[in-house]
Amino acid sequence: EVQLVESGGGLVQPGGSLRLSCAASGFTFTNYWMHWVRQTSGKGPLWVSRINIDGSSAAYADSVKGRFIISRDNAKNTLYLQMNSLRAEETGVYYCVRAESGTAAPFDYWGQGALVTVST
Amino acid sequence: SYVLTQPPSVSVAPGKTARITCEGNNIGSKSVHWYQQEPGQAPVLVIFYDSDRPSGIPERFSGSNSGNTATLTINRVEVGDEADYYCQVWDRSGGRVFGGGTKLTVL
Fold it and tell me: Is the pLDDT of residue A40 over 90?
């Protein structure tokens, strides 16, 4: 059974940093691109970042470029998202998501999400 | 950036057919994926590449895509189908884009 389990969410002040982790199991981690998708309460999902199978290539939404860093440890089957200079509008649930390689591939499995609250 | 427009809500009686649209400029030239999200849960893929169904998704769910509109169709709607539905595409300028979502209410 495919499992994606996020951790590391919590309350952080504006301008602060947080690191999310996602432990993957039940599939061959190195066969898939991995993504982070954010969802604010009552709104549609918003793609944040993706990383390719060996970690050599990453992409980011314009709004987070230069502040967020996605990475993966294939030996530990774990995905990470380092979030710096956080803003209040980045409050939401962050999902770890699996997709096959390629830009048009669907998001076929989602974790249950990690809640990040950016507030004073 | 690329914009996907969905109706905020669709209502249907049990046993009837629900159609949820997703409008975008020349969306027919793109691959459309659909996700179902129940309250408090993560999204679940229900249709991919316009009309394919993942294993475990009932045949009642189908999709089509042409021109400027993609459509998710749910036949013989059940109370358990009540959820938010999101369309999603990849666009060269906008990246991976989601629609604003449609709340399906089963009357």
Answer: yes
Average pLDDT over residues A13-23: 98
CA distances from A11 to A2, A14, A111, B51, B60 (A): 28, 10, 20, 40, 42
Which of A84-88, B58-62, B92-96 has the least mean pLDDT? B92-96
Q: How many CB pairs under 8 A join A and B?
A: 50
User: Residue B94: pLDDT band by 50, 70, 90 thresholds?
Assistant: confident
**Cβ atoms within 10 A of the Cβ of B73, count?**
15
Mean pLDDT of A24-51: 95
Residue A43 Cα, gap to closest chain B Cα (Å): 7
Q: How is residue B103 written in tokens?
A: 């709340």
CA distance A112 to chain B (A): 5
Q: Are B2 and B94 in contact (CB under 8 A)?
A: yes
The rounded radius of gyration (Å) of the Cα atoms in chain A is: 13
Task: With CB atoms and an 8 Å threshold, state whether A110 touches B44.
Answer: yes
Residue B32: HSE in the Cβ half-sphere, 13 Å Cα cutoff: 31
Partners of residue A107 in chain B, C-beta under 8 Å = 33, 35, 43, 45, 88
B90 chain-A contacts, CB cut-off 8 A: 103-104
